[in-house]
Amino acid sequence: MFIDLKTDIRQALLNNAALFSLLEGPHVYPLVSPDASLKTYITFQEITNFDNNFASDKALSSEIHFHFDIWTPYNTGPIATEVDRTMEEQKFFRASAQDGYDSTSQSFRKILRYKTIKLGG
Predict the structure, then answer these.
(1) pLDDT digits 0-9 by tens, 56-66
(2) Strands 41-55 and 107-119, sheet pairing
(3) What's 99's DSSP letter?
(4) What integer pLDDT is reported at residue 120 of this predicted model?
(5) 4, 118 in Cβ contact below 8 A?
(6) Which CATH number is correct for 5-31+38-54+61-119, 3.40.50.300, 3.40.50.620, 2.60.40.10, 3.30.2000.30?
(7) Is the pLDDT of residue 26 over 90?
């Protein structure tokens, strides 16, 4: 059983009006931003997706983990709060959060990781 949530996660983030406003548009991208001139954006990726909870040699659920990078020259807090709210609405829970700074782009970076278990396929 394989459950692919990448499109659903991106759409949920884009549907968050407060987040859309903070990002000044639909700046949520899988893996990398296609526009190097953007100051504030989010990149994300699925970091693991594996079957678990087996019965009769069939997976009953999948454990799925996502990694998000928030990039901005400003405070990452308001954006991180909206990502967190959206992911909780999608039945994910935050597994870790970490602050960083990239001196090349002069951007603050907030790293967020989430995980969930989804039933069925």
Answers:
(1) 878 778 889 99
(2) unpaired
(3) E
(4) 73
(5) no
(6) 3.30.2000.30
(7) yes
